[in-house]
UniProtKB/TrEMBL annotation:
<feature type="domain" description="Cysteine-rich">
    <location>
        <begin position="127"/>
        <end position="222"/>
    </location>
</feature>
<feature type="domain" description="Cysteine-rich">
    <location>
        <begin position="4"/>
        <end position="83"/>
    </location>
</feature>
<dbReference type="Pfam" id="PF02754">
    <property type="entry name" value="CCG"/>
</dbReference>
<dbReference type="GO" id="GO:0005829">
    <property type="term" value="C:cytosol"/>
</dbReference>
<protein>
    <submittedName>
        <fullName>L-lactate dehydrogenase complex protein LldE</fullName>
    </submittedName>
</protein>
<dbReference type="GO" id="GO:0016491">
    <property type="term" value="F:oxidoreductase activity"/>
</dbReference>
<dbReference type="InterPro" id="IPR004017">
    <property type="entry name" value="Cys_rich_dom"/>
</dbReference>
Length: 246
């Protein structure tokens, strides 16, 4: 199975360990993983700010880098959702359609494509799972709490298999952290207050780590945690799933 590893630009620049963990994890799970060196931003920040018409260069570059793979896997639900919903190129629409149909968020790929529900690993800490909006409501990675429907969570399903990991049940498990891409810049005060509220929920359950599938949300929460001089740390789910069992 030939995989194209799609690493978001902010992960590449600020959190390379997340990209490395994703690469190593997919290899451990038996995938042939390739990292296209010409990849750049997928165009999500521009599209979310009302400038989708300026993303044509990003779209063409994405198609040039990721055509021909069996699947494209990314450790970021928001970037995956953007590609699924917005990748188009009138000159290469057939290739764009193929990519939209084969791009997956990491935990979604592991559970739905590889059909893996157990990963051997060890992480002896108390962990709170932050559910990012794009992953939950766009990619349907987990059930929304406002629906009268059976609960499911693809990320939590994998976390439950990690030895010695204590995954807590949060009070408001799918509330937005306030990051929202450029929202945290244009509406800074609201964004910070929302982030502080999410952190209080994790603090009340005395977690050691906050994890999640989007490093962008974790970056937002991590900034608030550091300003509050909190002992709580953030860690991407790929880093936990890539841990070794001792």
């Amino acid at each position: 199975m030939k995989i194209g590893l799609f690493i978001p630009c902010y992960v590449d620049q600020f959190y390379p360990k997340v990209g490395i963990a994703t690469y190593e994890l997919l290899q451990k799970l038996g995938c042939e993983v390739h990292f296209p060196m010409g990849q750049t931003c997928c165009g999500q920040p521009m599209a979310n700010s009302g400038y989708a018409h300026l993303t044509k260069g990003c779209d063409a570059n994405f198609i040039a880098n990721f055509s021909g793979f069996d699947y494209i896997v990314c450790p970021s639900g928001s970037c995956v959702l953007h590609v699924k919903d917005h990748l188009h190129d009138e000159k290469q629409e057939e290739k764009a359609t193929a990519i939209r149909n084969t791009v997956y968020e990491l935990t979604e790929f592991i559970t739905d494509v590889l059909k893996i529900d157990h990963i051997d690993g060890r992480f002896p800490f108390k962990v709170g799972m932050h559910v990012s909006c794009h992953g939950q409501r766009g990619l349907k990675l987990s059930q929304m709490s406002e629906l009268n429907a059976p609960f499911f969570s693809k990320p939590e399903q994998l976390l439950h298999s990690i030895k010695d990991l204590d995954l807590v049940a949060l009070t408001r498990k799918d509330e937005c952290c306030g990051f929202g891409g450029t929202f945290c810049v244009t509406e800074e005060a609201v964004s910070v207050k929302m982030g502080q509220d999410r952190i209080k929920d994790h603090e009340s359950h005395d977690v050691d780590y906050i994890t999640g599938g989007d490093m962008s949300c974790l970056m937002h929460l991590d900034g608030i945690l550091k300003r509050q001089k909190s002992r709580i740390k953030t860690i991407h789910i790929a880093e936990i799933l890539n841990s070794l069992e001792n």
